[in-house]
Design goal:
By secondary structure, this protein is mainly β. The protein contains no helices and eleven strands. The strands form two sheets. Strands 2, 4, 5, 6, 9, 10 and 11 form a seven-stranded mixed β-sheet that branches. The chain has a four-stranded antiparallel β-sheet with strand order 1-3-8-7, with no helix packed on it. A hairpin with a 4-residue loop joins β7 and β8. It is globular and about 40 Å long. The N and C termini lie far apart (40 Å).
Length: 121
């Protein structure tokens, strides 16, 4: 059975850190480009970061790149893709989904159920 499961979300104070993990079963994540997509209440989904299947290159949304706050990485031994989030801001709150496809930013073949990130001031 093909499945993606996110974990690691929770409540954190502004400036704090979380590490999200996307675990796959039924297939190998290294065959796919993996994106983290977030959605805040009342807002559209936002693609935050992606790691390419072709060369492992990473792509960050303008909202998170340039300050080194978010880092995506693969752990092929565990068949996971992790998202390290540091110096979290209130605007980072939302449900974080991992999604996989042939290339970054879709189209996506599979989605996880999401993990909630709440940032308190």
């Amino acid at each position: 059975q093909v499945q993606l499961v996110e974990s690691g979300g929770g409540l954190v104070q502004s400036g704090g850190s979380l590490r999200l993990s996307c675990a796959a079963s039924g297939f190998g994540l290294d065959y796919y480009s993996v994106s983290w997509v977030r959605q805040a209440p009342g807002k559209e989904r936002e693609e935050v970061v992606c790691i390419s299947r072709s060369d492992g290159s990473t792509v960050y949304a303008d909202s998170v790149k340039g300050r080194g706050r978010f880092t995506i990485s693969r752990n092929n031994a565990k068949n996971t893709v992790d998202l390290q989030m540091n110096n979290l801001e209130f605007e980072d709150a939302g449900t974080y989904y991992c999604a996989v496809g042939g290339s970054c930013w879709g189209p996506y073949d599979h989605w996880g159920q999401g993990t909630q990130v709440t940032v308190s001031s």
